[in-house]
Amino acid sequence: MRRVLGALLRDPTRDDRYALELCRETQLDSGCRAGVLFRLEQQGWVESRWEDGREANGHARPRRRLYRLTGSGERATRRLWQPVPDQSGGRLPARSLSPGLAQLLVEPHHRGRVAPLVQ
Fold first, then answer.
1. If we measure between CA atoms, which residue out of 97, 92, 91 comes closest to residue 117?
2. CB atoms within 10 A of CB 38
3. Are the beta carbons of 77 and 67 closer than 8 angstroms?
4. Confidence class of residue 115 from pLDDT cuts 50, 70 and 90?
5. Topology (CATH level 3) of domain 2-82+91-110
6. Which DSSP symbol is given to 111?
7. 40 phi and psi angles, rounded to 5 deg
8. Rounded CA gap, 106 and 119, in Å?
9. pLDDT at position 26
């Protein structure tokens, strides 16, 4: 999940990122990436839309589903890379998640555990 978010965050203003491009950039297989994008879209961190048919026809290929970070998704992703305070007032490494962010990344079929892609 962090790889997909990182790829989208590299240029958060782009609204034309397609799934295969994200697969190549993140080196995730299509099934894994599709699940990540689906969960992010369900949480409101990512929006998707279908590419205009004329654009696809002009390149003799099927239409692509295009993805972009939402404003809230961009803010949440930036927080993922910021250190969060621990109980003793120290700082945890950037890859540690605050409880609220970790909860957003929980997969229902993991029964309350954070998805392995977050680690």
1. 97
2. 12
3. no
4. very low
5. Arc Repressor Mutant, subunit A (1.10.10)
6. T
7. -65, -40
8. 12
9. 87
In contact, 37 and 63? CB cutoff 8 Å: no
User: Is the pTM higher than 0.70?
Assistant: no
DSSP strands (E only) in 1-119: 17-18, 46-50, 65-69
Distance CA 10, CA 86 (A): 28
What local confidence, expressed as pLDDT, does residue 19 receive? 87
Number of other residues whose CB lies within 10 A of the CB of residue 5: 24
pLDDT value for 101:
54
Cβ atoms < 10 Å from Cβ of 112: 8
DSSP 50-110: EPPHHHHHHTTS---EEEEE-HHHHHHHHHHTS--B-TTS-B--TTSPPHHHHHHTB-GGG
| Structure tokens belonging to residue 5 | 């978010």
| Residue 48 burial (CB count, 10 A) | 17
